[in-house]
Write a structure and sequence with these properties.
Blueprint: H1 15-33, H2 39-55, H3 57-62, H4 67-77, H5 79-86, H6 90-101
Helix pairs in contact: 1-2, 1-6, 2-5, 4-6
């Protein structure tokens, strides 16, 4: 038997993968919001979300298979600032994100 530590653990995603994932998640969220958000604000929101994910990468990697926990983290860490930036209701934004993210 070959019992190497971390054998089934997936490696941390690359910065490019993280940036693309954040972009896709926010794109899906905006579609579910049904309101117009200027391209510049969307880019600022993606940058904000990317920085938050990079800052908590180890924790996010540990909980990568639990979408509900990740969506809860997003509500606490990202949704307030993003709602303010995009000038939308935070609860509406959270519901749209959960619908898009699957949590």
């Amino acid at each position: 038997m070959n019992n190497k530590p971390g054998k089934h653990a997936s490696p941390l995603p690359t910065p490019r993968k993280i940036r693309r994932g954040c972009s896709k998640e926010l794109y899906r969220t905006v579609k579910r919001l049904g309101v117009y958000i200027p391209e510049e604000r969307i880019r600022e929101g993606e940058e904000l979300y990317y920085k938050k994910v990079i800052g908590n990468l180890m924790w996010i990697a540990e909980h990568t298979s639990n979408r509900k926990v990740l969506a809860d983290w997003w509500d606490e860490a990202v949704s307030a600032e993003l709602a303010e930036l995009w000038q939308v209701d935070r609860e509406t934004l959270s519901r749209a994100f959960r619908s898009a993210f699957g949590g």
